[in-house]
Amino acid sequence: MRFLFRFILWTALVVAALVALAYLTGNGHIPRGVRYTYLIGRTAPEIDDRDFFPYATIPAAAPQPWPTGSRYGKLALTAAQEQELKDLHSVGFAVFQHDSLIFEQYWNGWDADSVSNSFSVAKSYISVLTGIAIGEGVIKSVQEPVGNYLPEYANDCYAKITLEHVLTMSTGLDWSESGADPFSDNAKGYYGYNVRELSLDQPCRDEPGTELDYISGATQIMSEVLEAAYGRQLDDLVREKIWTPLGCEHPAYWGKDRADGDFKAFCCLYATARDFGRIGQLYLDSGMWNGRQIVPRDYWQASITPAKVMDKGKPNDRYGYFWWLAELDGRPIHYARGFHGEYVVVIPHEQLVMVRTGMKREEVNDTGHPTDVFKWIAIARELAKRPV
Fold this sequence. Notes:
Elements: H1 2-24, H2 29-35, E1 55-58, H3 79-87, E2 90-97, E3 100-106, E4 116-117, H4 121-135, H5 163-167, H6 185-191, H7 195-200, H8 216-230, H9 234-243, E5 252-255, E6 269-271, H10 273-284, E7 288-289, E8 292-293, H11 297-303, E9 310-311, E10 314-315, E11 324-328, E12 331-337, E13 343-347, E14 352-358, H12 371-385
Antiparallel strand pairs: 1-5, 2-3, 2-14, 4-6, 5-6, 7-8, 9-10, 11-12, 12-13, 13-14
């Protein structure tokens, strides 16, 4: 009995010492990260971890239910297609064509009203908000220095960084982007308690505007710019500028680092597959929704045009303003993507939008795109072309 007591005491002391060491070395996110991963049988952030962190609710104030196409309810996945989706732990798959929902299916307890973490799909929402801010004159131009809005970026090497550098992931800042390293800036941003300070305190490494370097800190900086420009918080802006005009049917939730802290804008927007489809439809329709120009057309076009930077020794052809760019049959498509294979894909030449939510994705290939996204695109196209 005495031995057991000593063991428990020493274990508690060791744990307390490790926790204290984590905070003393600037790694206070580690205890929180361990609590919400390894201690509950996980190894990484997941799509259903909303309640682990503080968040704000974005209400569905003026819902516009999706029109359903004539084939809705009549299309079905083949056994092989469904198995492909299940193999990578998909939880939702929705296809929209000609402004209507034509197919949806859910797995693992998810349904049309279930919300999931979008991870980096959230970045494309920050791009949309930026375009809206420019259209409203709150931000004058993407050529403005970040320092016009954030005093932390008004001097030294930071003074060279423009909003366009932020939007095109070419800031030259030294943010460690990793979904596996527990000491990375991504881990600190996701599990930490001061994401604003983290994003604004990154050292300069390279000349801005030269090289595509995908870092989540860039999106966090852009959200801080938007909040400073409007003098309002991110959730309020999303509600007024996106969720309400686009008629989202379900409340969304955006995670924060702490209850009285900042929004984790580089990730952590939780919504349904149907509502994620609305940003795809907005971009399919050149920034318009129901005949109203939500995103200025010039900005919309620039956001899905390859940024004029280098990408691993060659001119960039896969990234715009927080949107990924690719080709399908020699024609351009664009998409938002997240850590576990959350996708909102826009295929303009087929008037098609696809949303996939899930828990796993495949590796990025030599062209800079996860191989699984093209599997889901192929399934969506086949469904859209199938006669009933």
